[in-house]
Amino acid sequence: MRSRPPDIFISYSHRDGFDFAKELHAALIARGFFVFHDTTYLQPGERVREKLFECICSSRLYIPIITENFGDLDPKRWAYTEFKMALQEESRRTEKSLALKECPEPFIFPIVHGPKDIDDLKDYHDLHEQLKNRLCKRSTDLKKIVNEIVAAAGIVEDSFVDTSLNGVVAGRFPVTNVEYRRFINDGGYRNQGVEDWWSQTGREVWRSYVARRSHKYLWSKRTEDSVIDESLTGSNLRFNAFNQPVTGVCYFEAQAYCRWLTETKFKDSQYMVRLPTEAEWLSMLSKKQKEFLSNPERPSEKAINLLFSRQNELLPDKIDLELAAKIEYPSLFGQYPKSRSHIGCYDLIGNVWEWAHDFVTPYIALSKSRDEGNVGKILGNCCFDIPKRLQHPPRELRYPGYRHNVIGFRVVLVERRWWKRCVEKHEKGPVRLGNVA
Question: 46 to each of 52, 360, 431, how far by Cα in Å?
Answer without folding.
Answer: 10, 51, 56
